[in-house]
Amino acid sequence: MSFFPTWRENPIFTVLLSLVCFALILFLGVKTSVLDKPTPIEHTIFVEGVGKATMSPDIAVMTFGISSTSKSVSEAQKQNTALMNTLIEKIKAAGVVGADLQTKDYSAYEKLEWNPLTQKSESTGWVVSQALAVKIRDVQKISVIVEIAGQNGSTSISGPTFTVDDQSTYEATAREKALAEAKLKAETIARTLGLKIDRVVSYSEYKEDASGPIFYADMKEGMGGGGAPSAPSIQTGTQELRLHSTVTYLLSN
């Protein structure tokens, strides 16, 4: 006994079943044809361009340190605080606002020396040190502020570290140059391969740190005193901003 009715028993059902089977065979044939068709390969290249822009620094950061030595830590702290407070007042009087001053590296330690007679380390006093970072927004005043620091107890001076407050304009210029260089490289490669640029697939960039001239002085006895002027001649110079752009291009025939 057959599960499906015969032609004589139900001719309509038999016709419909035949059509369904035919459609299924046709669908599987088309599907197999699509799967067998190879997927086209996308050709991409990535290139890097470097853009440069010359900047004129408009901010300088200097660091002034003061060290004080005394028999007791409290006395050393008292001396050090008085010297630093005076220095801060003088720097503010030169036009630097309080928001551009930052205390750094405060320390206090006992100074020990080896005594060969007693075969022991003995205290020779306490050393208290602290540093003040100063952001100078008028670079023409750098020399004046360095001189003020030397005349008011600074035992070490380092800097300046030059920077540009707003680098966006310089970055835009460097980016434009970097992209132009990257596109030129991509076009040359594509032309050599007999292809052409279709579109950009991805983009990334990074910026190199710009640095400028650095002045450093170590003055254990301070910078004050008569004779020649103590203010150094600080030159701001220029800084080169370098921006790297990496672009991935899709190529076409």
From TrEMBL:
It comes from Candidatus Uhrbacteria bacterium RIFOXYB2_FULL_45_11. The chain crosses the membrane at residues 12-30. This is SIMPL domain-containing protein. Keywords: Membrane, Transmembrane, Transmembrane helix. It comes from the Bacteria. GO terms for biological process: DNA damage response. The lineage of its organism: Bacteria, Candidatus Uhriibacteriota. Pfam families: SIMPL. InterPro entries: 26kDa_periplasmic_antigen, SIMPL/DUF541.
